[in-house]
Amino acid sequence: MRNIYSLSLLFTGVFFITFTTFSQVATDVSTKFFLDALKTENPDRPTQHFSVNYDLIKLNGEHYVGALAKVNDKINEDDLNNLDIITATKLKDLWTLRVPLKSIPNLMSIKGIDYIEISSEISPSLDRSLASTRVDSVHQGLGGLDRAYFGKGVIIAIIDWGFDYTHPNFYDTSLTNLRLSRAWDQNKLSGPAPNGYNFGTEYVGTTQLLDAKEDTLYVFGPGSHGTHVAGIAGGSGSGVINFGAAPESELIFISLRRDAPSLIDAFSYITNYAAAKNMPYVVNMSFGSHLGPHDGSSLKNYGIDILNGPGKIFVGSAGNNGNNNFHFDRDFSQNPDTVATVVNFDNSIDDSFGQTMTMWGSAHSNFSASILLVDNINQLIYETPFFHSQDEPSLDEIYVFGNDTLHIKMQSVAQHFMNNKPNIRFEVRNTSNHKVVLKFHSEDSHVHLWNNVRMNSRYTNWGMNLTANYPNGVTGNSDYGLGEPAGVGKNVITVGSYLAESYINETTFQYGNLSGFSSKGPTVDGRTKPDISSTGQSVLSSVNSYDISNQTGFVEEVEFNGKTYGFKRFSGTSMSGPMVAGIVALMLEAHPTLSATDAKEIIRKTARLDIRTGDIDPNVGTLNWGWGKANALAAILAAKTLSNLPHYELKETFFNVYPNPASDEVTIELDDIYSTDLKLVIYNFEGQLIKEEKLQHATQMKIDVSGLPNGMYIFQLQANQSISMKKVSILK
């Protein structure tokens, strides 16, 4: 081994740190990184790097950090007030806090707090689209709809960054009235903040919004992401291009602070406003993170689980790591051999610290991991010992060799409070051309690993490959690539991406393929995700007129109030998510109290299939397409059908249809004999009513389908105020 000069940020030879001061409240790895970094900071005058990295807010001369807390019935808010801790959102036992740095040690010992997270982050990730998703047919009231639907009476909330409040795309189609009713710029601290919150600036009404012009430049810099996303979900087209999905919806924009408590505050802000207006809402989330367990158990997902319900629906993007082999997993209980993989870095990014390697094991297990540095012929230069998750090790050291350094940070928990899973996270900076190898081992754990770029000031969701160019090394894969919270939430409609079709004639089209970048599932707890796919590749929508990086190359432009506003094509699941959010807004117009569960089931059951998707089992779905391509016309028809029934339950299934595909006859098999009338309704995938008939009371019935042409159909069966749907293929 070569001689190495080791400079430790702690002191040489010490690899474990015990947080004796902070031992009473359960925490996560992000909180431990924060607490470790806080030790070298002056709470009254924290460094600029620390302030940016942990998204601090200065209030009344004090520096505050955001936190999420899971509390119990012993919590006494006076204990928080005595420490100048500010409470905002309270969703049952999930509270958002703003904590002065000086109060952190005392916070960690307050009775009534079971678990706390500090510095849990997230990061950001129309013309042909309307036809491909059948939104154009909904706008025309075709295919059996009682009228046209445009999202009137529904709120679409876009949580994002890079908003242009003045863009004509957010006016009505006559360019007279601004449909953007309010915005909360959480990053502009001059105020006034919304009622009940102590940070950010709220703009209400046309005058305030137009005077403000745009949201605050933030750590992501100038951008158009939010403006583009909002245009897809609810843009009016500014009179020059096709509409967004729901061009008569009311819009709310929230510029997020990055941290988890600000996200939960945003959810609560939207919910409270919608309740005051007695309006349904859909939230779009085109962002994500790969720091969490990817099983839906994070506090961000827990907040969504609490809030979702009738007229409250959450939609999110799957992520853009479909082409990246940034994930690896091994069930060591079946194969206990030590595993090694080479961690690839993206050294082309100027502000990159290096890579973040997040590792999660299975519940109530233990695993260990080690970092190696080797040269190009795999000779060992440096290695750490194996760190065992059950010991909750911590590390922050710099190793200097020649003119290069290897900086390794590491934090861990033995059993995470929310899911009992062990978690180790490495953050590694390597300035040399040598390879960083990660080894891990266990006797009983199923370990998952994700490798993402770590900026100096923030985490990202940009996956980097894990490769096998080391003896007995293994390569990564793109499985389990869905980000949090939108990609893995139990109560989120998760959306993948495809390139919209271009029809040559009625039966022939080009494109329509799944986007290579679209992240695929499953979730770590084994659920099929995404739920649906929509148009997310080369999508035309509005860009921010104040974004200096997007002032040329417009596909379309419009002059409005003496200024030029542009439209450009962007790609990503950030673009496919808002199309489905807009479709959900149309569904809510048809059925304002539609539940989140039923909305997801309808979106899945009415998905269309073609030669690109191939056959998809309607009971299982796939890990790339979900249940197929979003079909707005069929979805709005199904939602409208449910709205006409005073009491109903949309069941996942109470009947089966076989054979499927069928030719001349199908058998409908019920799971029970129903005492009330049975009604079968058949729609084609253009939303046209094909057949409607009452059925006999029996567990099996024969249905003649010989007169139906080849294609996909939706069989909708109603019984005892219960409705279930099946996709059936007719092929002769």
Topology:
Blueprint: E1 5-8, E2 26-27, H1 29-38, H2 48-53, E3 57-59, E4 62-71, H3 77-81, E5 86-91, E6 94-100, H4 104-107, E7 113-118, E8 123-124, H5 127-132, H6 135-140, E9 155-160, E10 180-185, E11 201-204, H7 206-212, H8 225-234, E12 250-255, H9 260-277, E13 281-285, E14 287-288, H10 299-307, E15 312-317, E16 327-331, E17 339-343, E18 352-360, E19 367-374, E20 380-383, E21 387-388, E22 395-401, E23 404-413, E24 423-430, E25 435-442, E26 446-455, E27 459-463, E28 466-467, E29 493-499, E30 502-503, E31 509-510, E32 532-537, E33 539-542, E34 556-560, E35 563-570, H11 573-590, H12 596-605, H13 632-643, E36 649-650, E37 655-658, E38 665-670, E39 678-684, E40 689-695, E41 700-704, E42 711-719, E43 722-730
Parallel strand pairs: 2-7, 9-12, 9-13, 10-12, 13-15, 15-29, 29-32, 36-43
Antiparallel strand pairs: 1-22, 3-4, 4-6, 4-7, 5-6, 8-14, 10-11, 16-26, 17-25, 17-28, 18-24, 18-26, 19-20, 19-21, 19-25, 22-23, 23-24, 26-27, 30-31, 33-35, 34-35, 37-38, 38-41, 39-40, 39-42, 42-43
Question: Main traits of this protein?
Answer:
single chain; 732 residues; alpha+beta; 8-stranded mixed sheet; 43 strands; 17% helix
Work out the strand percent. Answer: 25-35%
Total strands: 43
**N- to C-terminal distance:** 71 Å
**What is the count of DSSP helices, taking H or I runs of 4+ residues?**
13
Inertia-based shape: globular
Structural class: alpha+beta
Poorly predicted parts: 1-23
Walk me through this protein's architecture:
The structure is a single chain. The chain is α+β, with helices and mostly antiparallel strands. Strands 1, 16, 18, 22, 23, 24, 26 and 27 form an eight-stranded antiparallel beta sheet that branches. An eight-stranded mixed beta sheet has the order 11-10-12-9-13-15-29-32, with helices on both faces. It is globular, with a radius of gyration of 27 Å. It starts with a strand and ends with a strand. The model is unreliable at 1-23 (pLDDT under 50).
